[in-house]
Amino acid sequence: MHTDLVAALDIGGTKIAGALVDGHGQILVRSQRPTPAQRDGETVMRAVEEVLGELTASPLWERAAALGIGSAGPVDASAGTVSPVNVPGWRDFPLVRRVREAVCGLPVELIGDGVAITAAEHWQGAARGHDNALCMVVSTGVGGGLVLGGQLHPGPTGNAGHIGHISVDLDGDACPCGSRGCVERIASGPNIARRALENGWRPGPDGDTSAAAVAASARVGDPVAVASFQRAAQALAAGIAATATLVEIDIAVIGGGVAKAGEVLFTPLRKALGDYATLSFVQRLAVAPAQMGTDAGLVGAAAAALARRADAATV
């Protein structure tokens, strides 16, 4: 029997996606359900089991050697539990055990969603060929992950590289995480929009107050919209520079909805990086948009499962 595929789950506050993925990162079978995020934990788990049920029903399932999960966090890979901020019914939920039961004992590898996207970008995307990289997701929140020495570096609990909660403004706004002036509190989409509105930006006739609408205004030169993106870029640059100074990354890859703003974000980001990444060993740091798109979480979870399978084969 060939065991040349892995299964993958990408679990977020909006959707639960599953796939069977080959060793080249190609998705061969996929399944998806909306996340019943405001329901109780067992209802959420049932949606996961429905996705897994569609995968196990595929004739290709018998070729799956392991299963990788990329989940919204915090996750605790050492305990096999998840407590996603945007799925309140799951607190210290034993996801690894429950998934293993649903797939009859297949090996299961759990990582945070930021780490999963990093794995995907390093394997198939913008960080390919880089041994030391930071990959970030800038959307409703700000997450990330690290590649160090050519290897994914999830850390003991699967949360290493969570750049959204580096403090870059010591006397800044209180962050829901309990700290102050976090990157996420300044650079996430909702906070870009909030700051623009507080400073007098007004949406168009459609009433859209999203970060994408602020980006559209910035593109045509609205000074308040431009300033809100510049402030976000400054926070991201400070966080990226701090990370590069600590662990010597040579590329920062940025994805997520806010990165879709394009040069409205990347131009001031590259400029601000010059102000913060000043030491000789971080001056050549590149910044690039992510390439993997909406399948990044699945492909990254598959990469983690493949890495686990490879580790097991060498023991």
From TrEMBL:
Top-level taxonomic group: Bacteria
Pfam families per record: ROK
UniProt family annotation: Belongs to the ROK (NagC/XylR) family.
Protein's name in the database: ROK family protein
Organism encoding this protein: Streptomyces doudnae
Organism lineage string: Bacteria, Bacillati, Actinomycetota, Actinomycetes, Kitasatosporales
